Amino acid sequence: MKNKVAIVSCGIIKYEGQNELGMWNDEATFKVSKMALDNVGAEKDDLDFVVISTMDGLDGITISNGLLAPAAGAYNKSSVRIETTGVHCIFSAVADILSGNSNLVMVASSDTLEMDFGYVTNFNQDVYFRGPVGFNASQSYGMLAMDYLKKHNIDEKDYARIANKNYLAGAVNPYAHINKKYSTEEIMASPYVNWPLRSLEIGKISNGAVACLIASEEKAKELTDNPVWISGIGLTSSQYLGSWKELSDMKAIKKACKKASDMAGIKDLKKEIDLMEITAPFAPFELIAMESLGFCEEGKAVDMLNNGDTSIGGTLPVNLSGGGLCTNAPNSGGLFRVVQAVKQLNNELDGVNTENMEKALVHDSDMFIGAVGGVSHGVLMLEKGE
Amino acid sequence: MQDISYNKRFEYNWDVPFKVTLGESYFRFLDGLKNKKILGNICPKCNGLHVPARPFCDKCLVEITKWYETSGIVTIESFSVTYVKFLGLPDPPHITGIVRAENAVTSFLHQIGGIPYDEPKELDEKTKIGMKLKPVWAEKRIGDIQDILYFTPVDA
To answer: Of A19, A265, B79, B104, which has the highest C-beta tally within 10 A?
Structure first.
């Protein structure tokens, strides 16, 4: 990018199960936003703009930014609410900074509501074509998982291995909701929900909150010696009623990644990216995303998994946070992954050594409502350095 | 986990009546179902057949006005067999399919039924991508997507 923009501070509380936080969205948003300000000695008055990521059906109230924006410091300031997730919010923050309108932007999101997620994601479909015939997010996950399994003739056990890899990472992440090291055998023994997906291969809904401060280059240097620079960002939407080929080949991820890579001046993703956080609310989406992002040929991501390349200590660790299986927060999951990548680049996470890792890719998506049709994907490139 | 024993848990739900007018394209598609017809329309620019019929083409961003009546036979493009009960969804096991009419450039969702099985797990193998299906119509049809009860194999 011509002018530089950085993430200068993060605020996060440990993620828990549904309705286990003991506070409403505004209080959770306040806590993490205040934490992000305090970490760099900033005050509310330093903020120019606030971006909130929520979705009405996941907040239990409509237009919830009325409640949440002031909790993130927006009283008497510019603010917007964005229904899709973290990378989309950061896109808005970056745009406002690059326009010269803002120097410091708060991006915050929270999940505190207990709900029947299967019902909510059926309720969120249109009521003419999708909702009435019986469709929710879980079935969309099953469709993609089935398609990938049949197309590449891989073993259902590979899906359990991805889940196991994520659970091992989540177990040492102090912010992850699920900290249990489920073995491949335990995962294989869990019941089918949507064939070929088993219960332990689908993320359970998490509650928590997260915030980060985005700053212009000048403001970043004033506030911290430890900025993480946003080097590229791309967003792309898919079709709602497209053909299965359109819906399953993840063109939107490819295009978002191309935009972000070009902006970051990345020539060879495989050589240049050190770690990734991928939105994968069901285990095998990690494979689909890696291939769509261009890290390997179609059907070959499973080899990287089984070689240990994507595990803790591997050549290209993916979802060191534990991913969507360990923290699956519908509103704040995207921002959670951004903050995890920032902490990894700063080598701040206990339990994993990410020293000397300098470039990260974060994939984000609103696919938790339904992964086929009408999905928007975002790719964010982050890097350390002067 | 924090101690939340001091807290009160409020329970509530949304029950909000809405009304919407869908417009000509969606209306004609749904109204066609009353007469056991699955209608599509064709983009004047890319010639792409859209089923369900749509007011515009996503790819060309032009209005679609040319109508087409399909044979009613669809092909399974993808599916998911569900083994647990979800609120608002049919009882398990049930199969949700993404199906495509003729050479349409779009697809749509519906339930797939009428595949015989002894054990529910057999449905994973017996449901095939590329399988041809025909609609099973509701006796009383009112012009909505559930006028088709489900799609079933053409040879069933």
So the answer is: B79
**Chain-centre distance for alpha carbon A165:** 17
* Element (DSSP H or E) covering residue A311: none
- Tens digits of residue pLDDT in A108-147: 999 999 999 899 888 888 888 888 888 899 999 999 999 9
**Which uninterrupted H or E stretch holds A236?**
strand A228-237
More confidently predicted of A368 and A344: A344
Verify whether the Cβ–Cβ distance B78 to A147 is below 8 Å.
yes
Dist. CA B75–CA A185, nearest whole Å: 36
- Taking the C-alpha atoms of residue A54 and residue A46, their distance in angstroms, rounded to an integer, is 24
Find all residues with CB under 8 Å of A190, minimum gap 6, and list them: A198, A199, A200, A201
The model's pLDDT over B90-120, given as tens digits with 9 standing for 90+, comes to 999 999 999 999 999 999 999 999 999 999 8
ipTM at complex level: 0.86
Using DSSP's 3-state secondary structure scheme, residue A285 falls into helix
Nearest CA in chain A to B77: A244
- List the beta bridge partners of residue A230: A5, A382
- According to DSSP, the β-strands at B66-69 and B148-153 are unpaired
Give the residue ranges of DSSP H helices in A40-183.
Answer: 56-59, 65-68, 86-98, 117-123, 131-134, 137-152, 156-170
Q: Please identify among residues 56-115 of chain B the ones whose CB lies closer than 8 Å to any CB of chain A.
A: 58, 77-84, 86-90, 94, 96, 98, 100, 104-111
Residues 6+ apart with CB under 8 A from A345: A228, A275, A354, A357, A358, A360, A382, A383, A384
By the CB < 8 Å criterion, does B26 face chain A? yes
Report DSSP state, residue A102. Answer: -
Let me know if residue B84 belongs to a domain: yes
Whether B149 is in a domain gets the answer yes
Q: Which positions in chain A touch B22 (Cβ < 8 Å)?
A: 128
Q: Domains along chain A? A: 5-114+205-223 (3.40.47.10)
Q: Is residue B41 part of a domain?
A: yes
Residue A364: beta bridge partners? A378
In chain B, % helix, strand, coil (3-state, to 5) comes to 15, 30, 55
Q: How far apart are CA B131 and CA A72, in angstroms?
A: 52
Per-residue 3-state assignment (H helix, E strand, C coil) for B34-91: HCCCCEEEECCCCCCEECCCCCECCCCCCECCEEEECCCCEEEEEEEEECCCCCCCCC
Per the structure, the complete domain to which residue B110 belongs is given by 24-153
Q: pLDDT at position A59, please?
A: 84
Taking CB atoms and an 8 Å limit, are B78 and A242 in contact across chains?
no
What's the DSSP call for residue B120? G
Q: How many independent structural domains does chain B possess? A: 1
pLDDT band at B88 (very low <50, low <70, confident <90, very high): confident
